[in-house]
Description:
By secondary structure, the protein is of the alpha+beta class. The protein has three helices and 13 strands; from the N terminus they run H-H-H-E-E-E-E-E-E-E-E-E-E-E-E-E.
Amino acid sequence: MNKSIKVLIVMMVAVMMAGCEVGEGELMKTKTGHLMYLGWTDDINGILFNIVEPAFNLNAWVQAPEDQKPEILRKHFYSNAVIDVLSDHTWRIRVDGTRASLRVALVNGTSLAETGAKMRLLYSKDYDHSVWANTVFVLENKGDGLWDFYSEDGQIYLQFTLGTSEVPESLTETPLTIAGAGTFTERTVIPHCSGDVCTEETRFTYLSYDIQQPFEASWTQDARRINWTSQFNRNDYFIAFSAGKVHLQALDEEGQGNAAGITVLNPEEIEIEMDGIVQRRKI
């Protein structure tokens, strides 16, 4: 099971527990906020390394002369990754032997390097309950190192500011800040069996975010924190943050849950504010 799924399930269990009067008191409250933050940053990592960075990698591959394409493919993608050319402006990156794929269509412009260029991106996996899989996203070059990234259903919006006006081949090659607001939706299918008869129950949980102070990326290769790698590119980095502030709200289908304010103090420590309780925690 993907780390983001596990974190969000644990997070929502904690949310339900914290919705009651818990004897552990203040520590339990901030632990819930901590889990909410870990779930949110895991989803941001998923978007960056499974969607945004492969789009930049693909753009470099598309723009390169034919004799340089094999080297770009070797440098940026795993050995079992395959790029299918579906049309003049549409490609599919897939992992051989799996159902994972990223469909990319350049719908405005001839290269992501052009201001106003837009890519439509659809990420699919072996399962369909990831918070960002099977959602159509748009990546748009706004110029001067500013990028809009949003889902066509209006649920997710992020704005990336890169430390360069050039299109990078890797996000980790340049400073990065992130702003935006939206909601990640988690779909969980729960089987119920009685004898030989089985039914399924689908539950939805929601993690909303409002970035109140832009998040500044802090790249790390700390093996302790790397629990998965991207399906498509060779990057084993895990994004942490050196600064930023976000308001998070986790809710179930009945609208029950918790809210937390998270301030990043440094790449290894955050400050959590919940119900008037303020506490620092190690990430």
